[in-house]
Specification:
With about 325 residues, the chain is an alpha/beta fold. It is built from 12 helices and 10 strands. The protein folds into 2 domains: about 230 residues, HUPs (Rossmann fold); about 80 residues, Uridine Diphospho-n-acetylenolpyruvylglucosamine Reductase, domain 3. Helix 11 packs across helix 12. The longest helix is centred in the C-terminal third of the chain and has 30 residues.
């Protein structure tokens, strides 16, 4: 093995961030593309030092005619490296990237649970992070969406299996150069060139234009996501402190089971950023889909509105009204 600068960089990242502890069983999601191949090769090269037990998982979405051959190729690599291999093939072809991602994460979690793997590791890079931030910004998002791809999180909500992304300081160019230097064949995914997908359009058309303005655009946007992640963590902690005082159970009969009361006297004292975050959280628990900016602003208005003021119907026929000293948000 030739120890490269990328090996050293990832080793230092793992030491600094402590996101992938030594001796653990880790399941690496490998698509056959350059990012995941770079990731698995470096992890295998560092395996002796960190004493991990490593396995590969491959999810075949059946989106392409060559998807089965792609899976065979990844399996061949696992055999060459003499590590366990898990392969899952979709029974239903997903109709969107979001649906495919949900299925993929559920499959990875199931493999990890059934085979006692502690961590699931993916090859998301700084380039993915920058593209995700820009994608979320274009479609509209709160600060949480701009932090874009965290280093570690539960694979699904409330799961004990952690999803880890150790390459978030490494660009897609870095992973491509590494695979070429190591002589690792990359499986080319033709769908990555299809600009009907918004993410591909951002990658293939938008970022090259931005790079003409600033060649460091990818690294700069990825660094912005890193800064925002720390700030979001702080805001979440502050919001939870306010939430404990603002979300109340008033001494009056509840008009509905799916109902929340906010103490608007205390809510009025909170900074606007905290008001918005807290209201967004409450609406997420009531509305049938995530609230947007205008839904939140309708509740913001009620903080200082006259008694008995109310919103027009929100999604799911939910209504928010002033029942001083509370704001009542309910879904019939």
């Amino acid at each position: 093995m030739t120890f490269t600068l990328l090996h050293a960089q990832l080793d230092q990242t793992l030491k600094k961030r402590q996101i992938l502890p030594a001796t653990k069983k880790i399941l690496v999601a490998v698509s056959g593309g350059q990012d995941s191949l770079c990731l698995i090769k470096i992890l295998l090269d560092l395996q002796k030092k960190w004493q991990w037990q490593i396995a590969i998982a491959h999810c075949d979405h059946r989106w392409r005619e060559d998807s089965s051959d792609n899976a065979d190729y990844v399996e061949t690599l696992a055999e060459k490296w003499q590590i366990p291999f898990f392969r899952e093939t979709a029974t239903v072809i997903a109709d969107s990237e979001a649906t495919a991602r949900t299925w993929r994460y559920q499959v990875l979690q199931s493999i990890a649970i059934n085979n006692h793997y502690d961590y699931i590791v993916t090859g998301h890079t700084a380039t993915d992070r920058a593209e995700t931030l820009l994608f979320n910004l274009i479609r509209g998002t709160a600060t949480n969406g701009l932090q874009a791809l965290t280093w570690q999180r539960p694979i699904t909500q409330n799961s004990n299996i952690l999803l880890v992304r150790p390459l978030l300081e490494i660009t897609r160019k870095d992973t491509g150069d590494f695979c070429q230097a190591q002589g690792i064949k990359i499986w080319q995914d033709a769908t990555n060139q299809d600009v009907q997908y918004t993410r591909n359009k951002i990658r293939l058309e938008v970022f090259p234009l931005l790079a003409k303005i600033n060649p460091q655009v990818t690294q700069n946007i990825a660094q912005t996501a890193e800064i925002l992640q720390a700030e979001v963590d702080l805001l979440n902690a502050i919001t939870q402190q306010w939430q404990a005082k603002i979300l109340v159970v008033p001494p009056i009969p509840m008009p509905a089971n799916n109902c929340q009361y906010l103490d608007r006297v205390i809510l009025r004292q909170a900074p606007l950023a905290i008001q918005r975050r807290l209201i967004h959280t409450v609406l997420q628990n009531i509305l049938p889909f995530p609230p947007n900016f205008y839904h939140v602003e309708k509740i913001i208005y009620l903080i200082t509105a006259p008694n008995k003021s109310q919103t027009d119907p929100l999604p799911g026929r939910a209504i928010a009204r002033v029942r001083h000293p509370w704001i009542e948000i309910m879904q019939p």
